[in-house]
Design a protein that fits this description.
Length: 122
C-alpha cells in the first residue's frame, strides 16, 4: 500500500509540474516545442511495449491498449502539427525553376513548329 501512495504522489507532482511548465510557454513557442516533443511520445510507446511484456491480467491488457492508442495518437498528431507548421513557412510565390522549365518547353515547341513549317515551304 505504501508503494501505491508513493506512486500516486509522484504522478500528482508530475502533473502539477507539467501544467506549470507548459503554462509558462508563450503561444508563439508552443507549436515548435510540441512538435519537438515527438521523441518523448515515442519513448511512451517503448514504455508501453516494455510493460506489455510483464502484463498478465485483463485489466492490464486494457490499460496497455489504451496507453498504446493514446501514445500513437500523440506521435501522429505531433507530426501533423509539425507538417502544418512547416507549411506556413513555404513561399506562396511561384517557383522560378518551374517557370523556367515551362518556358523551355514552349521554346522547344515553337522551334519544332517552325522547323515543320520551313520543311513544308520548301
Amino acid at each position: 500500500m505504501n508503494s501505491l501512495v508513493i506512486a500516486i504522489t509522484l504522478f500528482i507532482l508530475a502533473l502539477l509540474i507539467g501544467v506549470e511548465v507548459i503554462g509558462k510557454v508563450p503561444a508563439t513557442l508552443h507549436t515548435p516545442l510540441m512538435s519537438g516533443a515527438n521523441s518523448i511520445h515515442g519513448i511512451v510507446i517503448v514504455g508501453v511495449i516494455i510493460i506489455a511484456a510483464e502484463s498478465h491480467s485483463p485489466l492490464s491488457y486494457i490499460l496497455i491498449f489504451l496507453a498504446a492508442v493514446l501514445g500513437a495518437m500523440n506521435v501522429v498528431g505531433g507530426y501533423v502539427v509539425t507538417d502544418r507548421m512547416l507549411e506556413m513557412f513555404k513561399s506562396s510565390k511561384p517557383d522560378t525553376g518551374k517557370s523556367k522549365t515551362s518556358q523551355d518547353e514552349q521554346a522547344s515547341t515553337v522551334t519544332t513548329e517552325t522547323a515543320k513549317n520551313e520543311g513544308a515551304n520548301k
